[in-house]
Amino acid sequence: MTHSHLESVEDVLLLMGRASQTAREASEQLAAEGAEDRLLQALEAADRELTAAQLALMRSVYLNREAA
């Protein structure tokens, strides 16, 4: 794997982390504003799924393991 390849992976991991954080922050803000449960659940699920995908990518690339 080249340095360029690793940089590309790092870029994707960073974007996934930011997206997860954005979903989490939006969920917290909307909960404080009394948003519908279905909207909060969708944002929380997005956060969980993004985090899981980020971890799976990290495991696959850095630990050379298949995503679980």
Radius of gyration: 15 Å
Give the distance, in angstroms, between the N- and C-terminal Cα atoms: 22 Å
The multimeric state of the shown protein is: single chain
Total domain units: 1
Indicate the percent of residues in helices: over 70%
The low-pLDDT segments are none
* Number of helices in the DSSP assignment: 2
Which whole number gives the mean pLDDT?
Answer: 94
Sheet of most strands? none
Would you list the SSEs in sequence order as H and E?
Answer: HH
Q: What amount of the residues lies in strands?
A: under 5%
How many strands appear in the DSSP assignment?
A: 0
Counting helices, strands and paired strands, the structural category is mainly alpha
Q: What's the shape?
A: elongated
What's the topology here?
Elements: H1 3-32, H2 37-62
Helix pairs in contact: 1-2
Description:
This protein is an all-alpha fold. It has one domain. Helices cover 82% and strands 0% of the residues. The chain is elongated. The mean pLDDT is 94.
